Task: inverse folding
């Protein structure tokens, strides 16, 4: 999802995956008039503050005048949400391809669909481990990307880190007009503990240790 500039309030929203960002984005779109316009950075994927800052369009702004905000979430809860999202998205993709015009019952298509099923419509345990492994490779390090990595900055940008679990209380640090647009947010507690074996819970704890220590989250 693209990041969002609220230029009237000199505010920038960085969307961390599976932290309620879709709701925030939709609410900002619905209230563009009240907010004095909403500008989307032209990117279809999630983008970090550091990557955003090297983009030419962003560097032309008075960056020191902007504040950023993001939402973080308990890493164990976030892992369950990500798993459910991926399974739903892949099921939809498989269904669309089977019902779409592109389906010709050819071997290559069926092979692709089988790979999707095997890779993503599998156990939660497998998906969590694969996600961590993939992120480690992508980050070229021993740890996957942390949530707080999304808002690390090479320049001095004040950042508000809101929590998914206490969102309605935390948005009070934002300008009143902005906060009022988001006061219908409902964080849906889910019993994520039942998804984890002791071993898998420990894997999450080790993989996201910097976030867990910095944010004070517990299993």
Result:
């Amino acid at each position: 999802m693209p990041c969002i500039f609220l230029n009237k309030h000199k505010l920038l929203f960085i969307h961390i995956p599976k932290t309620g960002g879709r709701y925030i984005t939709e609410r900002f779109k619905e209230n563009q008039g009240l907010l004095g316009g909403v500008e989307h950075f032209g990117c279809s994927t999630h983008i970090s503050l550091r990557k955003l800052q090297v983009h030419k369009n962003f560097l032309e702004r008075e960056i020191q005048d902007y504040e950023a905000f993001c939402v973080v979430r308990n890493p164990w809860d976030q892992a369950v949400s990500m798993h459910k999202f991926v399974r739903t998205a892949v099921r939809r993709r498989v269904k669309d391809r089977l019902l779409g015009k592109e389906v010709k019952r050819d071997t290559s298509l069926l092979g692709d669909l089988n790979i999707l099923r095997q890779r993503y419509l599998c156990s939660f345990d497998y998906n969590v481990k694969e996600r961590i492994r993939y992120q480690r490779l992508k980050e070229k390090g021993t740890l996957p990307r942390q949530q707080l990595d999304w808002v690390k900055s090479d320049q001095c940008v004040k950042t508000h880190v809101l929590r998914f679990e206490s969102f309605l209380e935390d948005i009070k640090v934002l300008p009143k007009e902005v906060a009022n647009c988001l006061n219908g947010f409902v964080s849906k507690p889910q019993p994520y503990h039942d998804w984890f074996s002791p071993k898998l819970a420990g894997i999450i704890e080790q993989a996201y240790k910097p976030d867990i220590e910095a944010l004070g989250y517990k299993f």
The radius of gyration is 19 Å. DSSP finds eleven helices and five strands in the chain.
